[in-house]
Write a structure and sequence with these properties.
The chain is globular and about 100 Å long. The protein has a 6-stranded antiparallel barrel with strand order 8-9-15-14-11-16. The chain has a 4-stranded antiparallel sheet with strand order 19-20-21-22, with no helix packed on it. Helix 6 crosses helix 15 and helix 8 packs antiparallel against helix 13. About 0% of the residues have low confidence. It folds into 5 domains: about 120 residues, Rossmann fold; about 150 residues, Topoisomerase I, domain 2; about 120 residues, Topoisomerase I, domain 3; about 130 residues, Topoisomerase I, domain 4, CATH 1.10.290; about 110 residues, no CATH class. The longest helix is centred in the first third of the chain and has 28 residues. It is of the alpha+beta class and about 700 residues long. Helices cover about 35% and strands about 25% of the residues. The protein contains 17 helices and 29 strands.
């Protein structure tokens, strides 16, 4: 008897989708179903080699791409899955960088570049992802060329100037197009501060009284003209005119209704600025949290959901579907009077591509409170900021009742301003500052009021503030330098190279940064020319739009630049960074110790280096005995991320550390050591056990 064996059924071939990140892959595979397999390329798979220029200058700047070291296993998996797949879709991020990754993947996997296999989506939601697969397209070579041109320009600049800096200054230095502008801006601001000459001026604040009500007024001028008070003599001249025994007259009362409009939803730049200002987030932290919110968060029964739209954008545009959903939510939650009929339209920065929507929640109904339990603290705070800003942008203006009164006596004029919030509008969900009512008593023209007190105060004009991360990004954007994806890595680079340091959340240039900047300014002036760099960014945008040829743009930049490199190589003298004596001798060989400049700043080293390799960290004692071992001194230290903290000088024998500065006093309640904590506008002495705190000091 012959037994028949059933033929084993072959499992149907699946469509392969390649995305950039593993987190995104899981979410998208769930949306697409069983006929799709989704895997991640984990970013770029090919790049220019690190060991050499990798650009054939004599052959139309042809780049020589190689597989990125360490990506071998990933590439092997991609090739294996692509061979088995029914069709391969390339779903990298919807920007130049993502288009470039898709193009490199098509070369590695030997895909036909003419196939419609590129899919893009601005948000990782089920509807958006499924819809994108209904409209696959060819790889956009204009986008690829724009990214390739930027990469080649940056390589030509970096690999031409950096070796020069190694030869003439010291090893390990680098220069780049956008980072050089950022460094130049920081140093230019420092020069402004150093050259600033303060000017004296005075103000006079007075308190007035009508009946039992008191209110304040500020000196405006005299003899019907606005006057400035340059010195104390000018103040005394005003005070001589005032007769305190006589009443002042209300000569004018001006009542107005003032509207305050909401701001547009976030672009990458405004999100980074606002997260820095409101949440105290560094740019890197903001972008990391935003990436996680975009790629998908596990929301329990809902599964993994992308909570925000794509976070690299320079547009404030909002889709009609999102506008309608927001309007419905505002009607239901707050009432029809809060829903704007024509929501605010943000002004796009010069050169903005407007390729993607603004950063917004993928569903306004996923309120921060509903998803809070699934988010980390950092994710929640950023999502709350994005959600609130978007909802507010679709709401009506806030309305304030304002009142300005003019108070006069003997020709001397004071003015007083009052305001009252009449209608919340968008302030119901989002506000830059806490709106406080500043009420004046009921006043009419002809009323007489008494001056209760007068307080003349001397001031001096202040220099411009050093750049914070937020203000530096804002300045780069306003000048058309860089694009949303470049700001975070640019700021990271100038700090890693120790060209600048953060002091009190503000950038200060280092000695090394000053030296590098001076070389760039002297020998490569176009690199630090804001207009030149902005125009180059515009040309990259025109390549993306198919209006310019990338080889022509690169060639027009490189020919004069290469001449500058030759001139600098011939004429630049070697920069001697002189070793400054430290004032004590080496405890190993007895030779004098000197200050040396390292990757993370200055340190002590033996002057006989390399014969003697003794080094010591520069420590700053704060005059406090270690509260743990009671033997060592508390000293200032820096973390790997260059953040200041306090530790024991006997480390590693004593492991005492504190982010806040300890002081020489104990808590009167629990006897724990007290610390000085930085707060907005000053410091406050507190107990780390939260048993005690003193009034803040300005």
């Amino acid at each position: 008897m012959v037994t028949k064996t059933k033929a084993k059924r072959k499992s149907p071939r699946k469509n392969l989708v390649i995305v950039e990140s593993p987190a995104k892959a899981k979410t998208i595979e769930k949306y697409l179903g069983r006929s799709y397999k989704v895997i991640a390329s984990k970013g770029h798979v090919r790049d220019l080699p690190k060991s050499k220029m990798g650009v054939d200058i004599d052959n139309d700047y042809e780049p020589h791409y190689i597989s990125i070291r360490g990506k071998g296993d990933t590439i092997k998996e991609l090739r294996s899955e692509a061979k088995k797949a029914k069709k391969v879709y390339l779903a990298a991020d919807p920007d130049r960088e993502g288009e470039s990754i898709a193009w490199h993947l098509s070369h590695l996997l030997e895909l036909n570049p003419e196939d419609d296999n590129r899919v893009v989506f601005n948000e990782i939601t089920k509807d958006a992802v499924k819809e994108s697969f209904n409209h696959p397209r060819k790889i956009d070579m204009d986008l690829v060329d724009a990214q390739q041109a930027r990469r080649i320009l940056d390589r030509l600049v970096g690999y031409s100037i950096s070796p020069l800096l190694w030869q003439k200054v010291k090893k390990g230095l680098s220069a780049g197009r956008v980072q050089s502008i950022a460094l130049w801006l920081i140093i230019s601001r420092e020069n402004e501060i150093n050259a600033f000459v303060p000017e004296e001026y005075w103000t006079i604040e007075s308190e007035f009284k009508k009946g039992r009500s008191k209110f304040k007024g500020s000196f405006y001028g005299y003899d019907n003209k606005k006057r400035s008070l340059k010195d104390n003599d000018a103040v005394q001249e005003v005070l001589k005119r005032i007769d305190k025994s006589e009443d002042f007259e209300i000569t004018n009362v001006n009542r107005k209704e003032r509207k305050r409009n909401p701001q547009a939803p976030f672009t990458t730049s405004t999100m980074q600025q606002e997260a820095s200002r409101k949440l105290n987030y560094r740019t890197r932290k903001t972008m990391m949290a935003a990436q996680q919110l975009y790629e998908g968060i596990n929301l329990g029964k809902e599964g993994s959901q992308g909570l925000i739209t794509y976070m690299r954008t320079d547009s404030t545009r909002i889709s009609s579907i999102a506008k309608h959903e927001a309007s419905q939510y505002i009607h239901d939650e707050f009432g029809s009077e809060f829903a704007a009929t024509k929501p605010i339209k943000g002004k796009l920065p010069e050169g903005a591509q407007d390729a993607h929507e603004a950063i917004r929640p993928t569903s306004v109904y996923r309120t921060p409170e509903k998803v809070k339990e699934y988010l980390t603290k950092e994710q929640f705070r950023l999502y709350q900021l994005i959600w609130s800003r978007f909802v507010a942008s679709q709401m009506t203006p806030a309305v304030m009742d304002t009142m300005t009164v003019t108070i006069e006596q003997n020709g001397v004029i004071f003015k007083s301003n009052g305001s009252k919030l009449k209608f919340d509008g968008f302030l119901k969900v989002y506000s830059d500052t806490k709106e406080k009512d500043n009420l004046l008593p009921e006043l009419v023209e002809g009323d007489m009021v008494k001056m209760v007190s007068t307080n003349p105060d001397q001031h001096f004009t202040q220099p411009p503030a050093r750049y914070s991360e937020a203000t530096l990004i804002k300045t780069l954007e306003e000048n058309g330098v860089g694009r949303p994806s470049t700001y975070s890595p640019t700021i990271d680079t100038i700090q890693r190279r120790y060209y600048v340091k953060l002091v009190g959340k503000r950038f200060e240039p280092t000695e090394l940064g000053e030296i590098v900047n001076q070389i760039i300014v002297n020998y490569f002036p176009d690199i630090v020319n804001v207009d030149f760099t902005s125009n180059l960014e515009n040309e990259l945008d025109e390549i993306e739009e198919g209006k310019e040829n990338w080889i022509k743009v690169v060639d027009e930049f490189y020919k004069p630049f290469s001449a500058e490199v030759e001139s600098a190589t011939e004429n630049m003298e070697k920069v001697q960074i002189k070793d400054e004596p430290a004032g004590f001798n080496c405890d190993i060989c007895g030779a004098p110790m000197v200050f040396k400049m390292g990757k993370y700043g200055k340190f002590y080293a033996c002057s006989r280096f390399p014969d003697c390799r003794n080094t010591k960290a520069i420590v700053k004692e704060i005059g406090v005995t270690c509260p743990k071992c009671h033997e060592g001194q508390v000293i200032e230290r820096k973390s790997k991320k260059n953040r200041l903290f306090y530790g024991c000088s006997r480390f590693p024998e004593c492991d005492f550390v504190s982010w806040d500065k300890p002081i020489n006093r104990d808590c009167p309640k629990c006897h724990h050591f007290l610390v000085e904590k930085k707060i907005k506008g000053g410091t406050q002495v507190i107990c780390p056990n939260e048993d005690y705190e003193e009034n803040p000091q300005k």
